[in-house]
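dumping this here so i dont lose it again. seq + smiles for adenosine monophosphate
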Amino acid sequence: MTILVIAEHDNQQLKAATHHAVSAALQLAEKTGTAVNILVAGQACSDVAEQASTIAGIAQVLVADCEALAYQLPENLVPMLAALVKEESVTHLLAPATTQGKNLLPGVAALLDVAQISEITTIVDSHTFIRPVYAGNALATVQSCDSVQVITVRGTAFEAAATEGGDATITALAPITDSGLSRFISEEVSQSDRPELTAARTIISGGRGMQNGDNFSLLEKVADKIGAAVGASRAAVDAGFVANDMQVGQTGKIVAPDLYIAVGISGAIQHLAGMKDSKVIVAINKDEEAPIFGVADYGLYADLFDAVPELDAQLS
Amino acid sequence: MKILVAVKRVVDANVQVRVKADHSGIELANVKMAINPFCEIAIEEAIRLKEAGSASEVIVVSAGDSACQEQLRTALALGADRAIQIVTDEDLQPLAVAKLLNAVAAKEAVGLVIMGKQSIDGDNNQTGQMLAALAGMPQGTFASEVQIEADEILVTREVDGGLQKVALKLPAVITTDLRLNEPRYASLPNIMKAKRKPLDKVTPEELGVDVAPRLSTLEVNSPPARAAGQMVASVTELVEKLKTEAGVLS
Ligand SMILES: Cc1cc2nc3c(=O)[nH]c(=O)nc-3n(C[C@H](O)[C@H](O)[C@H](O)COP(=O)(O)OP(=O)(O)OC[C@H]3O[C@@H](n4cnc5c(N)ncnc54)[C@H](O)[C@@H]3O)c2cc1C
Ligand SMILES: Nc1ncnc2c1ncn2[C@@H]1O[C@H](COP(=O)(O)O)[C@@H](O)[C@H]1O
């Protein structure tokens, strides 16, 4: 019996989201006494396997390295995962609650004829978990009666496992063949020198109040001074000010940095769902009634076009 | 090609929900209900594909008690051709819904299934992927653009790092993201016309599906409230407090 974590990676770099899922897996291992393994599925992904093998507390890194897994398409990976769970007697299959984890795990659960449990934030016992529902306005404690638990892990709720200190064995799995059902065509990966939203300790986000994409440079200047990531509300993304991968919220990214600065964001339930677990929240808004002030530790009632340049100047 | 659109009845996105006093769930009495916003986008996309000549018929399906007929009628008013209600009072979980949809999709021999990426009540984000796995169909989740080309559908997907484009063999399952389209409103004449469109009923038993829940909800609680904050008078005061009081700026 084992616990298996699916590694999030791009064939070169193991993503930080994996370490948060591993830490949930280690909590489960403490309760159940089972070993934790990591699966790296990809093509030419041996660097990732090496990185995974040094994570503290991991027993084995299973590597499935073949052409059919180059883009981790669910049509190829989902049936493989379902088979692997049976072969390895996996009791808990975990993945980070990223778009990749969400793309894969429900299908695996369906093939195993078990439930999938999304975005857990607390492990109560080996079959009982807490997860937010209704945009985080309620926390449900759910218990599963299935033999295998298929779980996505909300990264903000679990500390990252240590990247060093482990010495897991690396085991190669047999290659698989392509399903012929889907093809990867292309990818547009946003390039930025700033930290990733879900890993950043400080985030400054802009909303509809920013008026256009060019004005986001005001936020970028501040971000560069304090090492922050730049996020956005859905309204800002919808209006085409910035890219979709910057959206924070119920249906975008969930973040919980030490400092979250919301600029020109009203604070709709769906936006709050993505950031209200931040340690310190600052809101800058010219509407005194804006709901964002209800969750802010520090509210500044001001025009952002005065306040943000001033903030930038004072941080020099 | 027939398109199947799965529609869920949920609490309206603008409602601030409250946890029941006995912690058994969410207070649903007298709460405004609506079509799950992602399902509205799914309906719109199906109708556009029909208008563009890529589809012959749009069938909407919802699983639930008689109340979900309201959402099915709205979908018909928006332009769907006919509706199917899978009649059940059971608290449906994604696996059960996926099995029901799989049975309907097979029976109707649909060429494409479009559904929401996530229901805004349970925030599961599972059903489309489960259906794809059960039906052996490829999946295009979190779609922000779709294009049918011969026997394939090209899907642009919103992923954490940016955008990914894949080609899927039809039949396929698509789940919608918010930017796929801007749903239309139903016109009054179309609302009237929708009353005469067919709405068939079928039971889980007739579809041969066991819908018993796999997860039990032990309790539902409100999240911890944040401590009240303070208003600051100036940027100077803000920076000062972030440095000294909050200790999050150096
Ligand atoms: C199914 C669904 C899912 C959703 N998912 C998300 C999600 O994941 N994330 C998300 O963010 N939203 C989401 N939304 C949208 C959400 O409901 C709100 O519409 C959105 O968050 C509003 O964005 P906003 O605050 O930028 O815009 P608005 O609500 O328009 O607020 C703009 C704010 O800027 C202020 N402002 C304007 N000019 C200035 C100025 N010069 N100086 C200072 N302040 C100024 C205004 O006072 C106002 O408070 C979702 C909605 C639905 C239905
Ligand atoms: N009871 C239901 N009836 C019809 N479709 C549903 C139902 N529940 C979920 N769905 C579909 O599955 C999508 C994703 O839901 P979920 O997996 O619950 O987040 C929804 O947007 C709907 O398209």
